[in-house]
Amino acid sequence: MKSFTRSYRIRAYPNGAQRRLLSRWLGATRWLWNTTLEIRSEAYRECRLRLTWEDLSRWLTQWKRTPGHEWLAQVPATCLTQCLRDQDMAFGNFFAHRAHYPRFKRKSISATLRFQGVGRSWARGVVSLPKLGSLKLADARAIHDVAFSEVRRQLTYKSEWYGKILIEVDRWYPSSKTCSQCRHTLDELRLDERQWRCPRCGFCHDRDINAARNLLLEGLRQQLAGCDDRVLRVDAGDACPEEDILVQVLAEEARSGHRNRFCMEQASF
Fold it and tell me: What three-state secondary structure class fits 97?
């Protein structure tokens, strides 16, 4: 049985006292980041010594016992520990030539708190302090640069989550230049041609809408032809007859019945 890790986004509206508390936490993590960054930079510059977050964690333990720094003990330890882990990752990315050298953090109205979870993946909190001061938590990193392979990966596991069927259509399938009305296929269709008229039936197509319709029909054709070995279904319910599937999935086309008849004809081959 496969296991999945789900992420949830939660919005909270802290009151005045809670906003002041969060502000102190943010200030503590900012101080810790900047202080340890200076220490690590000097250690590497003077001695070529690469300190780790475990090394600096021991420093943090001593700081909490040092007069004048007792306030560090009033901040959740998981926030401070995660701050050191984040800095460790930042240096790892720098030495691996994946990122620039870590920078000092400035005080701003929008900052980030990270909490190390217990028995689960870490959580991330984005805290915005002016006026309402909202708090957003998520269980996984945000995806900043999503490639098509990532979209495909997410579609795959989300389909399994919700009991849906995901069918891959061959990348060379001529979805853009095939008429979704009469199935005539153009010999050529330039990338800059966003609309085109079918020379056989005269139907005027929007390139993307036409391609989407063709991909839907091709996916249904593969499913009905038995290319997918899972149970035919539209949602997580029981299997249903092919005609019902077509009516549910192609609701708009079902009004005319034109494309439904085509899919049925294809499925009978």
Answer: coil
